[in-house]
Design goal:
With 226 residues, the protein is mostly helical. The protein has eight helices and no strands. The chain is globular and about 65 Å long. The N terminus is likely disordered.
Length: 226
Amino acid sequence: MNGWGSSIPVSSGEGYIAWAGVMALGVPVLAVLVGILNIGIQFVAGPLSLAIPSRVMLAMSFDRVLPERLAYVNPRLQTPLLASVVALGIAVFFEVAILLLGLSISTIALVAVLFIYQFLQATISATVAGFKGIPGVSLSDKEKRELKIYGSLASVVLAISVIVAIGYAVVNPVYLSMVLSGSLAVNIGLIAIIPVLGLITYFVSKRLREKEGMDLNVVFKEIPPE
C-alpha cells in the first residue's frame, strides 16, 4: 500500500481498477475476469465519452446557448459532426495536458463530476417534479409520492457519496495517494470550475441573444432545456 506508484507500476488515478486487481490476485480466475471486464468496459465508455458531449452540445445549440452550427447533423451518418469535432478537440487537449503538462485528474474526481452534475441534477429534478408536477404530463398521486420519496433518497445518497469520497481523502493520505492522483486542489478545482464555466457560457449567450432580439428566459420556458 505504501509503495503505491513506485514499486507497483500502476498510476494512482487507477485506484478503483487496482483495488479490484489486488483483491483478485490470489485467485487467478478472478484476476483474469477483472482484466476482461476492464477491457470490456472500455468498449462501453469509449463511445459514450464521445457521444454524450456531442449530444449535449447539440442540445445546447437548440436551446440557443451555443452557436447554431453545432446543431448540424450529417444526413448520411446521422451524427452531429461539428459537435463531435469540438468534443474531440477538448479530449485531445486534456490528453496532451495529462501526458505532457503534468495535469492529473483522478477517476474518483470524474465520478464526482458525473454524480454532481448529471445524476444529482436528475434526482433533484425528480423530487421537484413530485411536488410541482411535470408540465404536459398527468401524474397520479402515487407517482408523485414515489418521485418525492425516491428522488429525495437518491439525492441524499449521491451527495453523501461525494462528500465521503472527497472528504476522506483530506484526512487519509494513503487513500489520497491511491484514488486522487496528483493534487487534491486540482481535482477539487476541476469539480468547482464546471458550474463557473457554465454560468459564464450562459450569461455570455444571454447577452449575445439579447442583441439578436431573443430572450433566453423565454426560450427556456417554452422549450425545457435538455
